[in-house]
Amino acid sequence: MTTDERPGAQAWVPEDPTLPALREAVQGCRGCELYRDATQGVMGDGDPDAALVLLGEQPGDKEDQEGEPFVGPAGRLLDEALEDAGIAPGSVFKTNVVKHFRWSGMRGKRRIHQSPHKAHVTACSPWLEAEFRVLRPTGVVVLGGTAGKAVFGASFKVGETRGRPLPWPDTLPVANPPQWVLPTTHPSAVLRAREERQASYDALVADLRVAASRL
């Protein structure tokens, strides 16, 4: 059965979700084929009463192994940027639009990240909707293009909207939607920006400061 033929994650999402129940239930998800090559499903983690949710693309190699989001190099950089923006990393909730790691091939002992298809994002959206039902945040920071397209649709481009708080769109209906959503770049893009890394990092911090001012 292909990604498009699968029913999506809804059949595995608990009817009355809690964060612990979601973390347990995602391990049985067969809503798309990504579960086959992943170690485990990785739901979001952080302060369950957080006013701010940080929304990324998918778990990476280290996240897939440890079962926690944003624990690899990009996650460490994100925590530094949060602190520099005046946001305590422990006060937020971090999650991804896709809950299983998509990868292709190896580089040494590390599996090489491969971006999820739109079909994977669509199949996984019930998990994200369930998280929002539980969390009810004030604001969301969208990290990068994949997460941005999941929220705003296929025409989304980070550079056109980054750093600006926007209303939660109708393209991704959730119960009790956040008051605003702010796009910015993914911290992995900062790591890839070799010669301009400091400027990219400073831009990420500046965007997070805008989010901090809205909380």
From TrEMBL:
<dbReference type="InterPro" id="IPR051536">
    <property type="entry name" value="UDG_Type-4/5"/>
</dbReference>
<protein>
    <recommendedName>
        <fullName>Type-4 uracil-DNA glycosylase</fullName>
    </recommendedName>
</protein>
<dbReference type="Pfam" id="PF03167">
    <property type="entry name" value="UDG"/>
</dbReference>
<keyword id="KW-0411">Iron-sulfur</keyword>
<keyword id="KW-0479">Metal-binding</keyword>
<dbReference type="InterPro" id="IPR036895">
    <property type="entry name" value="Uracil-DNA_glycosylase-like_sf"/>
</dbReference>
<keyword id="KW-0378">Hydrolase</keyword>
<keyword id="KW-0408">Iron</keyword>
<comment type="similarity">
    <text>Belongs to the uracil-DNA glycosylase (UDG) superfamily. Type 4 (UDGa) family.</text>
</comment>
<feature type="domain" description="Uracil-DNA glycosylase-like">
    <location>
        <begin position="43"/>
        <end position="209"/>
    </location>
</feature>
<dbReference type="InterPro" id="IPR005273">
    <property type="entry name" value="Ura-DNA_glyco_family4"/>
</dbReference>
<dbReference type="InterPro" id="IPR005122">
    <property type="entry name" value="Uracil-DNA_glycosylase-like"/>
</dbReference>
<keyword id="KW-0234">DNA repair</keyword>
<keyword id="KW-0227">DNA damage</keyword>
<keyword id="KW-0004">4Fe-4S</keyword>
